[in-house]
Amino acid sequence: MAADGAAINADANAGYADWDEIFVIVNDIDYGGSGGAVAVVSKTSSYIEMLQHEVGHSLVRLDDEYDSFTPGYPPCSDFGRSGITTPCRPNVTDQTARSLIKWSRWINPTTPIPTSAALGPEIPGLWLGAHYQPTVYYRPCYNCTMRSLGQPFGPVASEQLPVVLYGGGWEGQGTYWGSLGSGTGIDIVEPGTAVPDPLAGTVNIPSAQSQVFALTVLSPGSGDNTRVKWSVDGTLMQDSAYANLEVSYFTFTPISAGTMTVLAEVTDIGGTLHATQAGVSKSTRTWTVTAEGYSGIGTELITNGTFETPAAATPKQPASWTLSNTAGSKLMCDADPLFYAFEGECAYRMKGNTGLTASLKQNALLLGDAGDAFSLSGQFDTVNLTAAFNVKVAFTLADGQIKTLKLQQLPRDQALTQPYFRQEISLVLGLNAPAVTKIKVQVKFPGVGGKVYIDALSLLHYDEYLTSPPPPNGGRLPVPETFRGQN
User: Higher confidence at residue 198 or residue 426?
Assistant: First the structure.
C-alpha cells in the first residue's frame, strides 16, 4: 500500500494539477498490489487484471469478496448488528432478508436467498463469504473481479462506477471515501450546449411562432444510451434516446398564452445502472417561457361537448356519446345553472361502484394531418369531486403510431381552492407527421367508488397550425419524434 500519500499527491499536483485519480505502477515483476486512496500494482504479467481489482477499491470503493479469515479486519453492518455503525461497502452485506438486500433490484425472484449454486458472473445472488470472513458477510457474485482476477465485475459492482462518477467527490480527493456524493461529478449534458441559455432569462415566443430548444448529450457505450425527456408544465411532450454527442431538439409551439416551464431531463439508460437507479445520473435544464398564444380559430371536434342535449333514446346520457358500465352515471340538468353545470344547465355525472368502471366515449369525425394542432380542455366541478377520473383523446396516425392527450383530476387539496377548475393540454403534429386516421375521445371513471361532475369539454382542431419548418438541426432528430400529452 502507498505509504506516503502526501508525497504522491504533491507529485501528481506538480505533474498535472487537474488530476482525478492516481495509479502507482511499481517497476518490479514480483506479484503485488493494493487499494486504498491510491491504486498500486507491480509490473507482473497480470498487472492489468490487478489494476482493475485495485481501482475497484480506490475509485469505485468496493470491498474484497475474499472469504479467508483475516484477524483485525474492521467489521461492518447494514442494519446496525451488535452496535456496529459502519455500513458495509456496496458489494458486501450482512443482511439476508431478500427485500432489504441493497442489491435486491438485481436479484431474480427465482434465485434462492442465500445462494449456493455457482451461477454465472452476470447473475447476482447472495453468496456467503466476503469481507475476509467465511461467515456473516455475503457477496453478490459467485466469483467476480473483487474475488478472483480475470473475472468480470458483475452487475452489482459494475453499477458502482457510474454511481461514483455521477455523484462526484472523487476528483482530486483529499480523503478516501469520505468526500463522495459532492454533486460535482460528471454532467451527462455537455456543458454550455443548452440553447437558449437557461440562465439568460425568460424566453418569449410570439404568437403563432415556434422556439427550438436543444442540448448536446454525453452517452456511455456505443448505442443510444442517453434518454432525454422534454416536458411543458409537467406534461411529457417528447421522449427519445441518443448516442454520445448527439443533439436533442424540441420545437415548442404554444397554443395558449401565458407563462410556462420547459424542462429537459437527461438520464443514463445504458444498462450498467439498474433502471431504478437511473436518477443518480439525472441532469436537468429549465427554461421559463412567456407565450403570446395563437390567434387562429379552432374547429370544435367534440359533438355536444357541453352535455346540453340529452340523447333521444337514452335521455340520461348526452347525445352522440356511447355509455358503458354506467353504475349510476347520467346527465344532470337543472334550471339553476350553478347547481350542476358551470356552462349551461347540464353536466355529466360520472359515478362508479366497486368493481365497475364507468366510461363515456365518442369518435370525432374531422381528422388532421402534418402541421396541425389540437387543444383539449375541460371544466370540472370540485364541489362534487370525490374520485379520480380522466379525459383522454387517442389519435391514430397513418403509420400506426398512437398519440394521446389526457386531462386528469387535480389533487383534491389543490382543486378545492376554487369552486370549478379547468385543465387544458395541446398536441402539435410535426411537419413530417403522417395523417391522422382516427380520433377517439373517452371520458373514463376508473375508480371503484365516488362521483365527479364533468362539463364543457372541448377538443379544438387548428388546421395548418405549423406553416414553416423549424430551423435546421444539424443533428439527429428523435426517431420517431413523439408528442405525448400524458403526465
Answer: 198
